[in-house]
Design goal:
Layout lengths: L8 E6 L2 H12 L1 E4 L5 E6 L6 E6 L12 E4 L3 H11 L2 E2 L5 E3 L2 E7 L5 E6 L3
């Protein structure tokens, strides 16, 4: 996937690079690339996909994310349980529903929200 002016990279602010890399590599099936510094690059373990760049920042998350990741799955309950076991926190008690989609809102170990969705049908 390429952006018209180059590559698309998603940057996630984190407090602890190792903890965040452990979580997101397991959650997404990605691997670490390069040596960590203030940044840690995560790339798909197999095939192509969007690069995720973890950026260590000193400030704590304070408000709702304006941009977030959506992880799609055919088995919502199993995927949510897997992500919770990796260290995510569940922010919705019951699944949300709209236009045939069902989803939960979770947070990574740094509090960054993301959604786990089951498509219609």
């Amino acid at each position: 996937m390429t952006y018209s002016n180059g590559e698309l990279v998603v940057v996630v602010d984190v407090a602890d690079l190792d903890r965040a890399a452990d979580f997101w590599t397991a959650a997404l099936g990605y691997t670490r690339a390069g040596e960590p510094s203030t940044y840690q690059t995560l790339l798909p373990a197999v095939g192509s996909g969007i690069e995720v760049l973890l950026q260590k920042v000193p400030d704590r998350k304070q408000a709702k994310n304006r941009v977030h990741l959506d992880l799609r799955t055919p088995d919502l309950d199993t995927e949510v349980a897997r992500l919770l076991a990796l260290g995510a926190r569940q922010l919705t008690a019951d699944p949300l529903h709209e236009d045939g989609w069902s989803w939960h809102v979770l947070a990574d170990p740094d509090g960054n929200e993301f959604c786990v969705l089951r498509p219609p049908g």
